[in-house]
Amino acid sequence: MIExxxxxxxxxxxxxxSIFPLQIQFSGERIFKYEKNFxxxxxLNILINIIILLFISFTKIDLFYYFICFIFCAxxxxxxxxxxxxxxxxxYFNISFIFFxxxxxxxxxxxxQDPTLSWDGQKNWFYKAQSFxxxxxxxxxxxxxxxxxxPHLGTLLWGxxxxxxxxxxEYIGRFFYVFIYLLxxxxxxxxxxKKEHVRILVLTxxxxxxxxxxxxxxxxxxxxxxxxxxxxxxxxxxxxxxxNIFLIVSFICINLVPWVKNEGYLFLIIFNASxxxxxxxxxxxxxxxxxxxxxxxxxxxxxxxxxKFLGINLFHGGNLDLLISFSDFSQYLLSVSLGFVVAIxxxxxxxxxxxxxxxxxxxxxxxxxxxxxxNFLKINLFLYFCLILGIYFSVINxxxxxxxxxxxxxxxxxxxxxxxxIIYIIIAINNIKNKF
Length: 436
Description:
Number of helices: 16
Radius of gyration: 22 Å
Order of helices and strands: HHHHHHHHHHHHHHHH
Helix content: over 70%
Number of strands: 0
């Protein structure tokens, strides 16, 4: 019984972090319209708190003090608005939000059945989370066990919610990954211009084919998946609505990815390279250029901090050798091809994405703004494909062998970047009526 209370209290804490400081009932007057962007407001609040926590991780401020201060402000602020607004609670009692709560509870219970960590989660990521649990900061990570130059944002959130939970069980900190994972899917499915039952059906299908219990055992891929979902969704909304706030949110999301895993800087470079290829298609070219420039500046700052204090190794595992035999190259192509097939069959979200590609290729009438986003996604997909080929070509002569690297990482790389392309499913569904 006490575990159930702890689970529900954790969900309540996550919810508080998603409804403050921005108040939902005032959203229509400021940034978003509530009726169609409820989950955007929830995520924007989460994003604000993530940024604050990231900054605090470079100081000696105890994260527990921030937690207490935040909970106090969030709780009493919303109590005030509950009293002031007669329809405050009614805003949350809709079928979509009820499903959101239910999915969180179901997955929480699923993870509690076997809360053990994976090998990588236990040997590397756990120690970073533990350091934040005990009140250490970024500059102490060099003294921790595990790979010290791994980025720390995901484990910061893990350790923060672990420490500030009712029972202080380690796995409760990982529940936050579930919350933001589901929030990303519900948020992007809000873009479907169909009836409510269609949105519920689609988001349920996406969850069923993208949820993997194994990835919540200390891995960081689900957090990158979620950030890429929000990055692509907000960039799509920027293209369609030309509202700068969506470009800013997309900018923040894609620039947080390198703080989660080292390969995130490659994902950021691909995003910006695609912007450069497409720059003639954007009306506000100055904004796109600023997006790229500031992304480069932030990436330099991040890498400088890790190089100076943690001894960053951007080429972890790489051992590039261009002098290979034809037979080795043939084996490389075969291994990577089989790896792709296995990864796509394992994470069937890619089957849905590819179906979306096919549907849109058959539709004759597509709005120009959708075409811009589709072309942007195609360039990203091509560059991601080249990136994956390059990653595994760099380990073709590694001591572990290419098959070891493919077996232990390709499926997770494929999974995390799938988040960026889920928007393709949404665009396809919205354009089905225009097929003929």
